[in-house]
Amino acid sequence: xxxxxxxxxxxxxxxxxxxxxxxxxxxxxxxxxxxxxxxxxxxxxxxxxxxxxxxxxxxxxxxxxxxxxxxxxxx
Length: 75
Ligand code: FES
Description:
Blueprint: E1 2-4, E2 9-10, H1 11-19, H2 24-31, H3 41-51, H4 56-62
Antiparallel strand pairs: 1-2
Helix pairs in contact: 1-3
The structure holds FE2/S2 (inorganic) cluster.
FE2/S2 (inorganic) cluster (FES) binds near residues 4, 35, 38 and 39.
């Protein structure tokens, strides 16, 4: 799904960078998400937070307790 229409950035793009350990600010610099109209910022931040290993749902996913389709970052 495209999250940032202005820069054509998908949830998978954001999740891939977040899983690589990048925070929102780094992802914003790298991909350009939320650098135009800004309407995608909260959604992008939510995706980054879901992929944070300290996030309880992400930790469950990594343990194999969640189906791979439960989160955008699980793909
Ligand atoms: S939709 Fe992302 S900056 Fe406009």
